[in-house]
Amino acid sequence: MEGDAWSDLMGSLPSGTQLIHVSLRLFVALVVGGLVGLQRELTHKPAGLRTHMLLSLGTALILVTSEQAGMSKSDLSRVVQGLVTGVGFLGGGAILKLTAEREIHGLTTAAGLWVTAAAGAAAGLGRLGLAIIGVSLGLLVLAAFVKLEQRLGQHASHDATNGPSAGRQGPSGKSG
Q1: How far are the Cα atoms of 23, 68, 83 from residue 128, in angstroms, in the given order?
Q2: Domain membership of residue 74 as a residue range
């Protein structure tokens, strides 16, 4: 490369304190994505450790890059809107409808991807505490509420197996 092109390229690298701040943001994004991904990996879900880490890191990297490029807050807002839409498509790809079983699978995976991207966005925008709090609450939902969901699921499947309750009627006046 010519001297001017090389110095232009190297001049775009953050220096000193700025490099530390950017690196910390990206590292926190990687960690919060890894925490959600580890939980999903340990529960044998399709989107696991690497997927969540890459999603969070990628989201943070896009926002850090946009911010470093000098985008205004309204421009950053449009970047966030695009990220939310893109993650929605990614999450949509994780959802499967099993017609024979009349079940839908992957909703929690999709929601976990969305939370991971949101935490990555928070980290990318320098809101490290918010990223950590958000992921901590997300992990609480994923881990602590499994038992409650299983108990509720057992009741729902028991009701479905036994049919409608006596005396309970739908809007048409029929049971169900």
Answers
A1: 12, 17, 18
A2: 16-158
Establish if 139 belongs to a structural domain.
yes
Q: Which tens digits make up the pLDDT trace of 150-169?
A: 888 766 555 555 555 444 44
Angle (CA) 116 141 156, round 5°: 125
The verdict on residue 165 lying in a domain is no
Distance CA 130, CA 75 (A): 21
Global pTM?
A: 0.76
Within a domain: 86: yes
Residues 6+ apart with CB under 8 A from 62: 79, 83, 124
pLDDT at 98: 79
Residue 172 lies in a domain: no
pLDDT band for position 84 (cuts 50, 70, 90): very high
State how far the Cα of 26 lies from the Cα of 128, in Å rounded to an integer: 10
Report the SS3 class of residue 104: strand
Residue 92 Cα distances to 95, 96, 110, 134, angstroms: 5, 8, 7, 22
For helices 49-68 and 107-124, what crossing angle results, to 10°? Answer: 30
